[in-house]
Specification:
heterodimer; A: 255 residues; alpha/beta; 6 helices; 10 strands; 27% helix; B: 812 residues; alpha+beta; ten-stranded mixed β-sheet; six-stranded mixed beta barrel; 22 strands; 50% helix
């Protein structure tokens, strides 16, 4: 991968002197379907600073998950460039993309995607071992579970945990890797209000602790938790700024 | 959703998973195809035997004279007139049959063996009964013009063993030469045995078929006959006819001391038919095992394919589809797999037959071999093969349509149960959660794990049983060789024409031969051993010098004491030990010659030979048999600087010598014959390897589909493809290990059963070692563990091309 120099282009919420965590320049994602082309993303220019708490908002089919996949190097653009933590992923080798996901980006999924044959602590421990911290993996995992309030449930299997608990395990898993950028795809999508609020509270804490947190959601109320909301429609950014209705803490959200 | 719609949908499912479907169908095909091929060999043999014996005019009854006696030509036919109903005889022919020495040596090889001349009536253009069938390209059979000429047809088993051809010449003891005009098969020699009943004797026995007149000239018995063969008209009572004919000959003045035999008394006939049922049992065991392995594999895989559609069934329920509508689509898939399996099974069966046929026709050469595809066997196997995927799909479909829709629709994180993965807590190692994943995957679905392991285990068990049999044969032959050859592998066994004194002229002539070193006289007699009222078994009694002779068996006990030394296996069969008594029926010399008598004798020793018919006693005890100092066999060692070949050549022409054979020959013959037999096992070995690989590949492939999201999650966390593949390989190793352990245990048990129960009923006179060699274990491990572990590599391409984002998201 090529190190790209810091760019001074301003964006809503940009704090001078803070490095850019994610930059998309002229990014499009095109799918050739049945003789035509479908654009999931079209001409996206976007920057996210380190430590920002950003929500990507949009209805179903707006391209928000595709955008997340670009940031997490799970998918590559048809056009444009994607830079994550100063590294241009667009032309990167496969091994470099894997390394990016090990070292820089951590995922939290709507459907949790925990390993059913591992306990809560083992699920977290597994991610830590993958990221290279084999020696202290168990201790790191237990600490992460403690941060999300699940110490007493650490020996339970996913089928023995509620949805909210599973999602908190997934958050602990992402947190335990130590990766600076956390991306969450509809993290409250499968959860009830109270549990969802709990999960958002955890993400809020992580953002306050200095992680770059990017959450994808279709829920406008949930978007108020962030410092900045990037709204997509039809694969394009239609707005980029503070949340409509003003920012609110997770406990104050109502949906 | 009409049935036609559902059928089209099921075909789309099939197309989507065509590789997995093809693999399951091939698994079924191997099971059903091999089942039909192997279990159909019994029908081949029955039909081929019947056709071969019919084509060569096998007799219904045979009149055989006492050794050395004969009568005027025509006298034996005349006896038929005194039958109660002479019209039952359809056809009869007189023959002259006598033993001789045959020198069939070629430029490269000495071939000196005992043999038999069969003089046949060619006056009508060749014998009508027990004729000699000559295959195309092997010369010709006897013709009217061959009458009184020095020509012969050479028996095919012997000719094939030594690669002798039409046009060669053989020399008989006494100097007569015969030109070989053809290589042929006669029914009494379709299968060659030794006098002692040993099998695979084709290399040390040569039958030659010539005209009656030529045989009479060779034997110096002009106008004489000693053998009569006849066929009866349809509907005749053979047993009654035999009895009547025996009475007629006993009352006649032919002076032949004749015995009337039926076909069942002819070794070749009896063995060729008796062997079929034990053969059938043998192959049915393997065929059943192969089909079971295929069944486990196909059942497991079909079940999992349907379970992968569980969520779609749940969605269908939510839409209001009826249970039969929901069930029909996966049932159609099962039906389509079943049909594909049966159709492919025909191809596999035909292929297996093409591979097995030449082995059989080479191992058991017959004039007529009928090796048709056995449709009845195939239908039986195909019925099982057809039912497997249907049952395999019916079971999960039944479970799924009975589920609550919400559970059926639930994604894995809600619906998954841990199975036995909680046992992981009990494992202190490995500590790494990552490294524990394969073990957890194996434990999470115990039923699947068991079925996969059983499928692999069945394939491994078949392999272990097959190779274990070969190991057992090999070990037994080595034991026999070690015993027979002892310190003198160059020992030669010289048979004499008749019983003589151990300082008689014939023996002195052998001692005086230039190439001969040490000579030990032996008296060999046929007998019978029994104990405690049981029927007993035939034995070959040999009186030799345990102390100073050229060779003696290895004995546990004291052979110098009055008594006999018997095989350990004989002792086991009779339920006796050293010191116990048994009944020995044996010839004993009285005033008027040898008579058969039964004596109670003590077992003074046991020897390790695998052949239970070998019984020994010390020559010093021959007085008790009325035969002190008598001999009819010599154990000879070559003189220093001489070879066994030189001994054979020098002794061949000596008067009084009937056979000269190196002691090592019999073991070599058995080995050579078993090589043909093992060729079928090589065919099985190849199919078993393919079966295990298919089961493993399909299990891996379905794993890849079922756990796509887990794999995608690992990729999302940055785990490279090769590390994910390592997890797959470790999981495959665990399946393979479980399957191999099952296979080794089952295979070892099967080997023991084959070598004891089945072998004992087929060849009670030979006791086999029960051995599974280290090489066999390694081969089983290579198949069951290594081959299965590397099966995941076949999905590497699919893994590399995975749509990770697509696999991660179940709903938008």
């Amino acid at each position: 991968m090529v190190d790209v120099a810091h760019n001074d282009l301003p964006h809503p919420g940009h704090r001078p002197g803070v490095p850019t965590a994610v930059r998309l320049t002229g990014v499009s994602r095109r799918y050739d379907v049945g003789g035509g082309a479908v654009y999931a993303l079209r001409d996206i220019d976007l920057e996210i600073d380190e430590g920002e708490f950003v929500v990507v908002l949009g209805p179903s089919g707006s391209g928000k998950t595709t955008l997340l996949n670009m940031i997490g190097a799970l998918d590559l653009p048809s056009d444009g460039t994607v830079t994550v933590a100063g590294r241009d992923v667009t032309g990167a080798r496969r091994s470099e993309l894997f390394a990016l996901r090990r070292d820089t980006v951590a995922f939290i999924f709507q459907t949790f995607n925990l390993f059913p044959t591992l306990t809560a602590v083992e699920n977290v421990q597994c991610a830590v071992e993958i990221s290279g911290h084999r020696r202290d993996a168990k201790a790191i995992a237990e600490a992460a579970l403690d941060k999300v309030g699940l110490t007493e449930r650490r020996l339970h299997y996913p089928t023995e945990l509620s949805g909210g608990e599973q999602q908190r395990v997934a958050i602990a898993r992402a947190l335990a890797t130590g990766n600076p950028i956390l991306v969450a795809d509809e993290p409250t999508g499968d959860l009830d209000y109270h549990t969802g609020a709990q999960v958002l509270g955890v993400l809020e804490q992580l953002a306050h602790a200095g992680h770059t947190v990017i959450v994808v959601t279709h829920n406008r109320e949930i978007s108020r938790i962030a410092d900045r909301v990037i709204e997509l429609s039809g694969g394009r950014i239609v707005s980029d700024g503070p949340p409509a209705g003003g920012r609110a803490d997770a406990a104050d959200l109502r949906w | 959703m009409t049935p036609l719609f559902l059928l089209r949908w099921s075909l789309r499912d099939l197309r989507d998973k065509w590789l997995q479907v093809a693999a399951i169908a091939l698994v079924i095909a191997i099971g059903t195809g091999l089942y039909s091929a192997l279990s159909g060999t019994a029908t081949w043999r029955y039909e081929s035997n019947d056709a071969s014996f019919a084509a060569t005019g096998m007799y219904d009854l045979r009149v055989r004279s006492t050794e050395g006696l004969d009568t005027e030509q025509g006298r034996m036919l005349a006896v038929l007139d005194s039958l109660a109903d002479p019209t039952i005889v359809a056809h009869a022919e007189e023959r002259l049959v006598f033993d001789t020495q045959v020198d069939a040596s070629t430029a490269n090889r000495s071939i000196l063996v005992p043999g038999r001349i069969v003089g046949l009536d060619v006056s009508a253009g060749g014998p009508q009964l027990t004729s000699v069938a000559v295959a195309d390209g092997s010369g010709r059979t006897l013709e009217r013009a061959d009458d009184a000429r020095s020509v012969a047809v050479l028996e095919r088993n012997f000719a094939d063993y030594y690669d002798l051809r039409s046009g060669d010449t053989v020399r008989l003891g006494g100097g007569t030469t015969l030109d070989i005009v053809g290589i042929g098969m006669a029914p009494e020699y379709f299968f060659i045995t030794t006098e002692e009943g040993g099998f695979f004797a084709q290399a040390n026995f040569s039958a030659l078929f010539t005209s009656l007149a030529a045989a009479q000239q060779i034997a110096g018995r002009d106008g004489r006959v000693n053998d009569l063969v006849l066929t009866l008209n349809d509907g005749a009572d053979i047993a009654a006819a035999r009895s009547d004919l025996q009475h007629a000959f006993d009352s006649s003045d032919t002076g032949l001391g004749a015995t009337v035999m039926t076909r069942q008394d002819e070794d070749a006939y009896r063995i060729l038919y008796d062997d079929i049922e034990s053969d059938r049992t043998f192959w049915n065991v393997f065929a059943g095992l192969i089909l079971a392995g295929a069944a486990f594999g196909a059942f497991n895989l079909s079940t999992r394919m349907v379970e992968a559609q569980r969520r779609e069934l749940g969605i269908g329920m939510a839409l209001g589809a009826s249970r039969w509508q929901l069930a029909l689509r996966p049932m159609f898939v099962g039906l389509e797999i079943a049909v594909a399996g049966v159709v492919l099974g025909i191809a596999v069966g035909v292929l297996a037959i093409e591979l097995i046929r030449p082995v059989y026709t080479s191992m058991l050469p017959l004039p007529v071999w009928i090796t048709d595809f056995q449709w009845s066997q195939f239908v039986r196997g195909a019925a099982i093969g057809f039912m497997i995927p249907l049952v395999a799909t019916a079971w999960p479909v039944w479970r799924s349509v009975r589920m609550a829709p919400v559970d059926a629709i639930a994604t894995t994180h809600r619906a998954a149960r841990g199975g036995m993965s909680r046992l992981l807590r009990l494992l202190p190692w490995p500590r790494s959660a990552f490294r524990r994943m394969p073990i957890g995957n194996v434990l999470r679905s115990p039923r699947r794990t068991l079925l996969t392991a059983l499928g692999i285990g069945a394939a491994v068990a078949t392999l272990v049983a097959v190779l274990g049999m070969l190991d057992s044969f090999s070990s037994t032959m080595e034991r026999n060789d070690a015993e027979v050859l002892g310190d003198h592998p160059d020992r030669v066994v010289v048979g004499l024409d008749s019983i003589t004194l151990d300082d008689g002229l014939e023996v002195e002539a052998v001692r005086d031969a230039k190439s001969v070193g040490e000579v030990s006289p032996v008296l060999q007699m046929a007998g019978k051993l029994s104990g405690d009222g049981d029927e007993g078994f035939d034995v070959l009694l040999e009186a030799l010098d345990f102390e100073d002779g050229v060779w003696a068996p290895t004995v546990e006990g004291d052979p110098s004491r009055p008594g006999i030394v018997i095989a350990r296996s004989a002792a086991h069969d009779l339920g006796v030990e050293i010191g116990d008594s048994v009944d020995l029926t044996h010839p004993s010399r009285g005033d008027t010659g040898f008579v058969t008598t039964t004596s109670t004798v003590t077992v003074v020793g046991l020897h390790p030979s695998p052949f239970r018919f070998n019984v020994y006693l010390d020559r010093s005890l021959l007085a008790a048999f009325g035969a002190p100092g008598l001999t009819n066999e010599l154990f000879v060692l070559p003189a220093p600087g001489s070879t066994t070949d030189e001994v054979e050549r020098e002794l061949f022409d000596l008067p009084g010598v009937s056979s000269v054979l190196p002691a090592a020959t019999s073991g070599q013959i058995v080995r050579d014959s078993l090589e043909d037999f093992t060729a079928i096992f090589r065919v099985l070995e190849g199919f078993m390897l393919l079966l295990a690989l298919l089961i493993a590949y399909n299990a891996t492939s379905i794993n890849a589909d079922e756990r796509a999201r887990e794999r995608a999650t690992l990729f999302a966390f940055g785990l490279p493809v090769r590390r994910v593949m390592q997890l797959e390989i470790v999981e495959g190793l665990l399946y393979g290990l479980a399957g191999t352990v099952i296979g080794l245990g089952l295979g070892a048990w099967l080997n023991r059963w084959l070598m004891t129960s089945l072998w004992e009923s087929t060849m009670p006179d030979m006791t086999m070692d029960i051995v599974i060699s280290a090489q066999t274990v390694l081969t089983a491990v290579a198949l069951g563990v290594i081959a299965v572990a590397v099966a995941p590599l076949l999905t590497l391409r699919r893994l590399r091309r995975m749509d990770v984002p697509g696999a991660l998201r179940v709903v938008e």
